[in-house]
Amino acid sequence: MSIDKKTALREQIKKLTTEYYQEAFPVREFVSGQSPTPVSGRVFDEADLFAIVDSGLDFWLTAGRFAEQFEAKFAKFVGVRDARLVNSGSSANLVAVSLLTSPTLGARQLKPGDEVITVAAGFPTTVNPVIQNRLVPVFVDVKLGTYNIDPSQLEAALSPRTKAIILAHTLGNPFAVTAVAEFAKTHNLWLIEDCCDALGSTWNGRVVGTFGDLATFSFYPAHHITMGEGGCVATNKPQLTKLIESFRDWGRDCWCQPGKDNTCGKRFDWQLGTLPHGYDHKYTYSHIGYNLKVSDMQAAVGLSQLAKLPGFIARRKENFAYLKAGLLPLSEFLILPEHEHEADPSWFGFPIGVRPTAPFERDQLTRALGDALIGTRLLFGGNLMRQPAYAGCELRAVGELSNTDFVMNRVFWVGVYPGLTQPMLDHVLQTIVHFFT
């Protein structure tokens, strides 16, 4: 088949894909009380749909040209040297923590029993890789309103075994970056920023994910952009980039891209370990790694979504501001979200705390919202130390984590994602006000 004919057929398929999108995904009228108001969801158009089809026509099923383009454009958006795709945000955290156990890091290598400072009020897969690598999570309490780490407790968390910090920017709200980064630098600790909920958030005008040694991102359908399943690990340090690739790609020492050979120029001339000289570098392993790559079809969707990201971020901020303005009169009984002065959050959700003085419990309010078909979520694991998965694990807590328990018992969140329209937001506000009256 000639190149011209293939190009023409692709254009024809693109036109048909657009027609299919318009037929299969029409805009539906929102009817208050009858239509659902989700907490999150995919926001996509015909360009995203064709991106999958376009990639599928290549039939390059593992990472390829779309993945390379995405990594380059995503790194530029965040402002980092390198970004490497993985198959989920959880895998991104697994890679980020695991690579710090590499012997190539010398005295800074994390070893079993070393401690990693974090918070218990969050999502499990921020903490799980710490335990999976036989490290010890040290839990610090959070501040109410921001639901991020209370940096005043960092000194109390420090011990001779402390080697790293891993923290998420909760619901897109940046933690106290300056204080945490300065603490990490002072004590020679690795800092991992979990930005899975915070793509596009800034601190003093600088995008989060650029303050730590490593940053992680998620492209699950609920997040700021989606490729279905997918995630990313970012860094400004070439040594860490090589380790990201090794732990993502089976633990191999070779850094050739899929389908490429002999990038190093001496594929059969290495001497590593006790292998025979010249053993194939493509089958030489320097770490105990995984296979956590994405497909090019996923990357193609992500690349299409990336073009929409500035608009998505703006819409999230607008929806957040609209909800906060509408709920301010109820702040006597509700703790409304706050952010640090230096932060400009790209909000993932709108957290609401029910004050102890309120004449109702959180579950009564969330049930009322659910009855009105309004989606709600708790703040992830609440207090991870109380989750059954962590019974018997080696953990350490600083203080009583009283605010973390407050989160577990009294905090929930509603959506601000770009698919929410003003009538949907009005329905949320009217339902809460009606609950009060």
Account of the protein in words:
- By secondary structure, this protein is an alpha/beta fold.
- The protein folds into 2 domains: 402 residues, 3-Layer(aba) Sandwich (Aspartate Aminotransferase, domain 2), CATH 3.40.640; 29 residues, no CATH class.
- Helices cover 36% and strands 14% of the residues.
- The chain has 13 helices and 15 strands.
- The strands form 3 sheets. An 8-stranded mixed beta sheet has the order 1-9-8-5-4-2-3-14, with helices on both faces.
- Strand 2, helix 5 and strand 3 form a beta-alpha-beta unit.
- Helix 1 packs antiparallel against helix 2 and helix 2 packs antiparallel against helix 9.
- The longest helix has 22 residues.
- It is flat.
- The relative contact order is 0.17.
Task: Give a quick summary of the entry.
This protein is an alpha/beta fold and 437 residues long.
Fill in the CATH topology of the largest domain. Answer: Aspartate Aminotransferase, domain 2
Structural class of the secondary structure composition?
Answer: alpha/beta
Specify the CATH homologous superfamily of the largest domain.
Type I PLP-dependent aspartate aminotransferase-like (Major domain)
How far the N terminus sits from the C terminus, by CA atoms, comes to 70 Å
Spans with pLDDT under 50 lasting ≥5 residues?
A: none
- Major β-sheet strand ordering: 1-9-8-5-4-2-3-14
Count of DSSP H/I helices: 13
Instruction: Write down the domain tally.
Output: 2
Identify the overall geometry. flat
What is the count of β-strands? 15
- Share of helix among residues? 25-40%
Report the portion of residues in β strands: 5-15%
Average pLDDT confidence is 96
State the major sheet.
8 strands, mixed
Give the ordered list of helices and strands: HHHEHEHEHEHEEEEEHHHEEEHEEHEH
* Rg for CA atoms: 23 Å
* CATH class (first level) name of the largest domain: Alpha Beta
